[in-house]
Design a protein that fits this description.
mitochondrion; globular; ETF_beta_N; Rossmann fold; ETF_a/b_N; ET-Flavoprotein_bsu_CS; alpha/beta; electron transfer activity; two-stranded antiparallel sheet; 9-stranded mixed sheet; single chain
Length: 258
């Protein structure tokens, strides 16, 4: 197996513990809140570092590069990824509030993969802001690479370039096998990400962070979808009590459930 050059896309999103609130214009949610790395991307960074630490891949890991497209504050997310163990970072700077759609992100990553000569891309199956779950699949399609989505376990064979991935499906799990280069998207049961220690946070400040623009990759922030309106979900109605089984049956018939 050839040495791995792993590319790990990460995204700065509203922190998972923050309850999003719709803005007054009903065009989106309030973004002036705490942000952090997308939880699924934390899994991707952790898995990449573990592959190196555990020497899982016979050819070893030559490079772990993290990349993020976002406003200047996205650099904090990249520094966190480097504190977790990534070697270097690429920041593709966009304007504040300029969100890229999955297809644009996939095209951007395709160009980066070709420039960086990556042979493995590990990314979260989705980001918790738009929940699109599309970027990994689109990237594999554009590259013409095999893909293993929703990975809960990744294993490298002792000989050759084959990788075996266990993925979660409805009602159980499925095991797939493919050869490098390939795209893997991560699911929650894959691992438990480490916390970035203070010494590693300080070391991350000295690791290389390359700044780029969308134009450097021939990509535009063209939007194909338009958000018409964003509203809060309707409040849930309170439940009711019944005296006996007959009352329950009558109530279910009344609601059209029987």
């Amino acid at each position: 197996m050839s040495a791995l050059r792993i590319l790990v896309p990460v995204k700065r999103v509203i922190d998972y513990a923050v309850k999003p609130r719709v803005n007054k214009a009903q065009t989106g949610v309030e973004t002036n809140v705490k942000h952090s790395m997308n939880p699924f991307d934390e899994l991707s960074v952790e898995e990449s570092v573990r592959i190196r630490e555990k020497k899982s891949a016979p050819g070893g890991v030559e490079d772990i590069c993290v990349i993020s497209a976002g406003p200047p504050k996205a650099q904090d997310t990249l520094r966190t990824a480097m504190a977790m163990g990534a070697d270097r970072a690429i920041h593709v700077e966009t304007k504040e509030g300029e969100d890229l759609e999955p297809l644009s992100v996939a095209k951007l990553l395709k160009s980066v993969v070709e420039q960086q000569k990556s042979n493995l891309v590990i990314l979260g199956k989705q980001s918790i802001d738009d929940d699109a779950n599309q970027t990994g699949q689109m990237l594999a399609g554009l590259l013409g690479w095999p893909q293993a989505t929703q990975a809960s376990k990744v294993m490298f064979e002792k000989e050759g370039d084959a990788v075996t991935v266990t993925r979660e499906v409805d009602g159980g799990s499925e095991t797939v096998r493919a050869k490098l280069p390939m795209v893997i998207t991560t699911d929650l049961r894959l691992n438990e990400p480490r916390y970035a220690s203070l010494p590693n946070i300080m070391k991350a400040k000295k690791k290389p962070l390359e700044k780029k623009k969308l134009e450097d990759f021939g990509i535009t922030a063209e939007r194909r979808l338009k958000i018409v309106k964003v509203t809060e979900p309707p409040p849930r109605q309170g439940g009711g009590k019944v005296d006996d089984v007959d009352g329950l049956v009558s109530k279910l018939k009344e609601l059209g459930a029987l």
